[in-house]
Amino acid sequence: MALVLDYHLHLWEHGPRPLEATVEQVAAYCEAATAAGVTEIALTEHLFRFRQADAVLGGWWDDHRPPALVDAMGRWWASEQGGDLDQYVEAVLAAKAAGLPVVLGLEVDHYPGRMHQVAELLAGYPFDVLLGSVHWLGPWGFDNLADEAFAAEWDARSVDSVWDAYTTSLEELADSGVCDVLAHPDLCKVTGRRPEVPDEFHARMAEAAARSGMAAEVSSAGWRKPVGEAYPAPPLLDRFRRAGVAVTTASDAHGLSRVAERRGELAGLLAAAGYDELVAYAGRRPRPVPLAGAPAPGSDGAAAAPPAGRPPASPVRRA
Ligand SMILES: [Zn+2]
Ligand SMILES: [Zn+2]
Fold first, then answer.
1. Considering every ligand atom, which ligand is closest to the CA of 10?
2. In total, how many domains does the chain have?
3. Residue 313 C-alpha to ligand 1 middle, in angstroms?
């Protein structure tokens, strides 16, 4: 059966707020996804938002420099805290048990030299899929452009050095074997600054995914950022396909209104790159699923065309 996936979803916006997961909220995400033609979602909250992660990993930035970035990271980390991993897992499992089309996931950052601690922390939970992300280069949250200290750091570094550091971190994350899917694989382009010839970096990213057996995520989140395009860039997506790297699709929504956002355009990118299947996960095990047809132009994901000769599986509604 063809599945249409949104495999990167957060229940909570960033910043200080109560962080409680409820079955009702998960059900609302499933309803919004279904209305947009998505047939399976993965809840993938950030690991760092949970007190269990803070207990093991909090302070990882302390032995870094410069002090301005170390301070900014410490402040930002503190502002993101408050979740209970057990409670999050229980809520998603309860939704699953109720028959909702959701799998249990997490978005896991790269903690250099500490990925064994991450693996130990997560080993006791029944995750279906783990996303692996690079958001930080040392204490620099390079994609957190709302923070002045983080945003200013872009002017202190060369674009090539940033891309090189990012790619090295991605390679180490992939080689750690802790996660299943590379989230927003070329996040280093977030500001729109890129090397004149990104090929070398793209080749390293595709090789890292291929040798680790990780899938890559095709995400509409980049359209909401200064770069204004999906992750990954078409030349990188082409390299993933030629390297035999499987793909998921994702909105990286941090709220209900963006669930399944621009999924039709993602389907168009996949078709242009020659992909005819996605990969879904259960219990950390991948399985290929046929790529459903792209929705009609202008429908922004709401009206997937049924396979020829077969009726749609469910009525199509607009969110
Ligand atoms: Zn992310
Ligand atoms: Zn995310």
1. 2
2. 1
3. 32
